[in-house]
Amino acid sequence: MAGDDILVPVDDSVTLRKTVAYVAERAADADGRPTLHFVYPVSERIDTSEEGAEATGAVELLDRIEVWVEEDLGDGADSVGVETAVVGQTEYLFNPGDYADVLVEYARRHGVETVVLDPEYNPLGMAPLLPPLEGELESAGLTVELAPVERATRRSPLTRTAGLGQFVVLFCSTYAFYLLVSGTLSAFDLATGAISAGVVSAVLWRITTRGEVELSKLGGRLARFALYVPFLLWEIVKANIDIAYVVLHPRLPIDPKTVEFDAAVWSALPATTLANSITLTPGTLTVDVTQRHFTVHSLTVGSREDLLDGALERAVRFVFYGRRAARIASPAERGARTDDETEGENA
């Protein structure tokens, strides 16, 4: 019966296995032969590699889910249909509304009325997705529920599993900083710097770096960062000239406003790089960053237009995610808002 079909958006999480078991048991108790639809939204925003690593991982996860359902149903596997799909590959999935649009389109196309969400489902990685996603799906007329599964207790240990990449990155950065501060390349400084960097790296390599460091990609990022530095310096020079013109102009043509937008960067280091780059550029000041939500004060119309044009954001994405990520829409195209527009919505 189509009314008993269930749509389950999936992403790898600590409660995914339990969520799959829950929906399998629920389908087995239903009348007729319901179908479980497991879909993995994959955005071009994430899949920036030439090989399509994110899409490949999605297919592998969906294959595992099919095996899990078969294990959970046992002899009753034939009484439940299972459909899997990778969706959203041609879309730009940036916020809960984008994910909801893809899921609603799939549900309507397959006649599914019920969505079960994994309580730890969060493909955006940083900002909480579930509450707004539930609201978007319910407003589209779907029945939405969270899988009633037990969540693992979250702990944040001081030390983490770390590989050679973390050690190498910490050693090189510490060594370079030591030599920069010393100001010479004498044999003594080279030797003591290497010893100091080695000690620091041995003690802190499991603490300082989050996530796996891929040495194969690090060289490319450093090369792209070397291109980014002169670009940023040029943007600073241009902004200085614009602000100097404003300050020296008899009418002082300023138009201070605050701009809010969700930056298309997806981890702490790129977000920090973008926030600092904005602040270093005269005429704009990063006031607040919450996850990926940026609040920026702009002094003039020109500085605001340059910010929303997204040149700095594209450059930062180029550094951390490669050339394909630089083609993502600008903040203006994604609907960035000034404080006047925000107040108008709230009025």
TrEMBL record:
<dbReference type="Pfam" id="PF01899">
    <property type="entry name" value="MNHE"/>
</dbReference>
<keyword id="KW-0472">Membrane</keyword>
<keyword id="KW-1003">Cell membrane</keyword>
<dbReference type="InterPro" id="IPR014729">
    <property type="entry name" value="Rossmann-like_a/b/a_fold"/>
</dbReference>
<dbReference type="GO" id="GO:0008324">
    <property type="term" value="F:monoatomic cation transmembrane transporter activity"/>
</dbReference>
<keyword id="KW-0812">Transmembrane</keyword>
<protein>
    <submittedName>
        <fullName>Mrp-type sodium/proton antiporter system subunit E</fullName>
    </submittedName>
</protein>
<dbReference type="InterPro" id="IPR002758">
    <property type="entry name" value="Cation_antiport_E"/>
</dbReference>
<keyword id="KW-1133">Transmembrane helix</keyword>
<dbReference type="GO" id="GO:0005886">
    <property type="term" value="C:plasma membrane"/>
</dbReference>
